[in-house]
Amino acid sequence: MKKVLVFLVSLYVCAPVCVFLFPWILGFAVFGHWNAAPFFVDLTRPELLLNHTVNFYLNPEPQVSVGVWHSLPSSLWAAAQGRSSLWYEAALGDGRPVVIFLHGNGGTRAAEHRVGLVKKLTAAGFHVFSLDYRGFGDSSGDPTEAGVTKDALYLYHWVKRRSRGNLICLWGQSLGTGVATNAAVRLQNQGSGVDVVVLQAAYTSVRELVALDALAQPYIFLPGFKSLIWTLLEKIEIEFANDKNLQTLTSPVLLLHAKDDTTVPFSMAQELFAVSVQTHSRVNRADEVEFVSYSEDLGYNHRNIYLDPDLPDVVTSFFQKVKRASAAKSM
């Protein structure tokens, strides 16, 4: 018993010391890119999971290749039979809304809940692009906040050049919400704001979220531990501050959050909604922010909002409202 106690105490002490000496460990925890689940899936053959999808790769910068799936609206499935990737590119000119899906930490674009969301959105008539950031799946390189944001921006511009006035949405889930708001703010600062931002299971900032992680709880009562984690995250340049981004972002925002989310507290989404409403109110556009919550009895938790049968209608209705508002401003 004494040996077991000594081992547990040693482990307790060693964990924060290791994180302090090797802060990159926090990066591995935040991104989770080492987890390539689902395993044994050939990402070059998305048709095994999504019949109406083509796989391709982009190079956001030299030596970095990121894998992308383009899934077509269901109405184009028949026409897409036997078509090349060039045909898929040309199909972007059909004017239908485009969703760029930015997934959460760990896993690949083939994860069940991610594929499930794509199926719902394509059935609703949207083009969907699923991106594996650098270091994830079959994408090369190592993830950093600046790097994954650059990946999202590169895909956005690639889509924008090939579309013909399509409404383009950045849809972030969990960690991907930080990528989405980072990219949206960058685009806004460049004078070409994104049409819509959807934030599914969004947190205020990664540093607040890390402090709530189960692995951090045994240490959180120690004086200075929380500040230490924040300092180390700053050192490795990881912030993903949705709260700060939404203080300036004026693109239309739709928040989706389950009340039983055990990974990201529901209260964080409420806080982000309040921040976004305040920001949009300053430019008389408070009606372009919506918050859809899901009760605990639905059991959607952190990943499964895609199971909501009304999700396509919720998203379509919001997109249509955005298009009407845009048309009214241009008159």
What does this 3D model show about the protein?
There is one protein chain. By secondary structure, the protein is α/β, with parallel strands linked by helices. It has eleven helices and eight strands. The protein has helices at residues 2-21, 24-31, 85-91, 112-123, 145-162, 175-189, 206-212, 225-235, 242-245, 266-281, 311-330; strands at 53-61, 64-71, 98-102, 127-131, 168-173, 196-200, 253-258, 289-294. Strands 1-2-4-3-5-6-7-8 form an eight-stranded mixed sheet, sandwiched between helices. Helix 5 (145-162) crosses helix 6 (175-189) and helix 7 crosses helix 8. The model is unreliable at 6-13 (pLDDT under 50).
What are the key terms here?
331 residues; alpha/beta; Rossmann fold; 2 domains; globular
What's the layout of helices and strands?
Elements: H1 2-21, H2 24-31, E1 53-61, E2 64-71, H3 85-91, E3 98-102, H4 112-123, E4 127-131, H5 145-162, E5 168-173, H6 175-189, E6 196-200, H7 206-212, H8 225-235, H9 242-245, E7 253-258, H10 266-281, E8 289-294, H11 311-330
Parallel strand pairs: 3-4, 3-5, 5-6, 6-7, 7-8
Antiparallel strand pairs: 1-2, 2-4
Helix pairs in contact: 5-6, 7-8
* Overall CATH architecture of the largest domain: 3-Layer(aba) Sandwich
Q: Averaged pLDDT, please?
A: 90
Tell me the Rg in angstroms. Answer: 20 Å
Describe the biggest sheet? 8 strands, mixed
Instruction: Measure the end-to-end span.
Output: 78 Å
Assigned CATH superfamily of the largest domain: Alpha/Beta hydrolase fold, catalytic domain
How many domain regions?
2
**Number of β-strand runs:** 8
Which band does the percent of strand residues land in?
Answer: 15-25%
Helix % is 40-55%
- Oligomeric state as shown: single chain
Order of helices and strands: HHEEHEHEHEHEHHHEHEH
The gross shape turns out to be globular
Supply the number of helical segments. Answer: 11
Q: So what's the CATH class of the largest domain?
A: Alpha Beta
